[in-house]
Amino acid sequence: MKVKFSLFFLILLSLMLSGNAQENPQVQKKTVLDVKVVGNKNVSSASIIAKVKIRPGQVFSQQLIDEDIKRLYATGFFTDVAVNVEEEPEGVVVIFDVQEAPYVEEVTFEGNRVFRAEKIAKWIQTKSGQFLDKWQLKTDLEEIRRRYLEKGYAQVVVDYKLDIDEETNRAKVRIIINEGGRIKISRIEIQGVRAFKKKRILKFMKTKARNWFFWMGVYKHEVLKEDVEKIEDFYKRNGYLDVKVDYDKQYDARGNMIIVIKIDEGKQYRVGDITIEGNKAFPTEELVKVLKLKKNGVFSYYGLNEDVDSLRKFYADRGYIKAHIEAIPSVNPETGLVDIKYKLAENDIHYVNKIDIKGNVKTKDVVIRRELRIHPGDKFEWYKVDRSRQRLDNLGYFGEIDFEVQPTEEKNKEDLVVRVKEAKTGEFSIGAGYSSVDEFIGLVELSQRNFDLTNPPTFTGGGQRISLRAEMGTTRNDYELSFTEPWLFGYPYLFGLDLYQHTRERERDVGYAWDEKRRGFSLRFGKEISEYNSVYLRTRFDKVEISDVADDVSSELKAEEGEKNLHGIRLNFIRDTRDSAFNPTKGYYMSLGIENLGGFIGGDVDLIRYTDNFGFYYPVWNNWVLNLRLQSGIIDTYGDTDRVPVYERFFAGGAYTIRGYDERSVGPKDSVSKDPIGGEAMLVGNVELTFPLYENIKGAFFYDVGNVWEDKSDFGSGGYKSSVGIGVRLKTRLGPIQLDYGYPLNKGEGVPSSGKVHFSMGHRF
Questions:
Q1: Closest Cα to residue 575, out of 522, 619, 616, 626?
Q2: Beta strand 351-358 with 413-422: parallel, antiparallel or unpaired?
Q3: Which of 100, 110, 240, 682 has the smallest count of CB within 10 Å of its CB?
Q4: CATH number of the 486-761 domain
Q5: Distance between the two ends of the chain, CA-based, in angstroms?
Q6: Which CATH number fits domain 2-100: 3.30.70.141, 1.20.58.480, 3.10.20.310, 3.40.50.1440?
Q7: Burial of 750 (C-beta count, 10 Å sphere; 0-12/13-18/19+)
């Protein structure tokens, strides 16, 4: 009995074979004497037999044969598989008759000039050393074509040829590329636009006409299609519900393309009557205030969906998490008005039954629960869930945070599941870099943001923070050990201990005309007094040594040489409403501080310092964020101290204050050497607009202004220095990196005429 299977009729013939097997019950009951393979050239018989289940000694099974055929096809090695069953007196011999797919010996590219062959080879799945899959090869050709289209080669043609050795069944694949030329766009015409300026339409199109200075104006079909969709979307967001956008392609005498965008605007629709039905818990007047779409205002479905979300959040924030809201727009093409009816099913207020924590492998439940602002028995007010999410995110322990509502058998009670995915919190870092502030730097750091002193041997999961850091550079050496317990003995009181030694070597490029060594320790205490407000108390005990003062300085600066003890206590009030401590987009940060040195605390210097820092964040548009920062300070002497030591004064200029100027260069200078000596008063403001570039990379435009005054009584009296610039923000596992170019707007002696590049790491408030 001989049965043949082909790739296209496998299922049909399998059914036929099943019938044949039933017609030949003698075969079904016979023993398999042997399994053989014929027709193979590049795949060994042993390899093929290893992939099938039928074996000598088994009772012949047609079902098993059918499955084996499918297994062989699944390998991709064969284009045809047939099975011959030869009957013998003692049993049957099963023979697999296979036709192999060509074995790819080589893949070459012809006609490619724009891309190297090595690069194209990385785009495709067809490789040498594989069996040829023609479907995959066709997919590969489409991928190559797509890559060319992205570069503007709209006329590209990609094909292939196979050179097959019939004896060995080995193939050489030749991929032939006719690149064609890139089509240049000479101009873009906008037709039919009345409601907006043509420049506004052109501005947000990625397709651009040829520009000799900035743009080559290359035609890309997919980009143009996206532009048409964006134009249509823009109109609909502005109330033109019936808008139709199309385009036409024409060519000038030189063969360059002219793109004609054809817009049929239609009429602009406005909001008619707004009615709300089904609201019992809240008056209509209160709900209407939540809506952005107002009577006679421009209507759009985007705005309508946002208003539905706003109403849903309004109810959820008040415990109505099961409220159902439906918006029914009624469009009148004749009047151009859209009446909106909101149908509400408020349902009952729901309460939290229990809260489960899941996914925390290392972090203790209590560390998560203490950040939650919603608890069992509370009304299910969703704003508390949102705030809990923010607080957990600000810990920096978790890569993912999710809140799930799960039903219970009790009426109007739901369980809340907090599901987290833990991120890496411990780091051992060794690195080197260059900073415009500190020049070359070597770094060694061991840190754990989720430390637990009582949990050996892993010492993780308790929410404490510990770090040991050493930085060694051209101009400075810093060593720090820091420990923070945010909940002391299980109570919401912060305790911290810092040990440090900072050494600065004389380097006038970064504002030092002396060597400075500071070593000491500090104790920190803190308490969150309300949801967004905290107070902190910090004591410090420093020993500061000034040495190797430059010879060409004034006698006053020379008098700073020597060693002094500084004992201080600082009180800080902080209000922080930012939506994220790491990547804020809205809210503000405010810090007001007062520090006393000397006096009843002891030490060699009697000072009092007032400082404030403000940071405001405003979402502008589509992940563009405006950040306004202001920092100021005044320091005064009392007791036995009549002059503020240079190492306790305010300085400005450089990466962290006024970019575009040398470090510490803005403000008073030594009367002889012209080195920066700082002042008793400081005021600095920054305006920064950040915008997304790619994933964890952002761009920035900024304006900085400020000054430092020698005497506190001159605070705000003028002499401001300002700058403008651009920058890049990069998020890395070692922390945020900031690269800025600032251009000074006030020229003068010692001011970089061509601006200055600043490189820094770390968060700014």
A1: 616
A2: parallel
A3: 110
A4: 2.40.160.50
A5: 83
A6: 3.10.20.310
A7: exposed
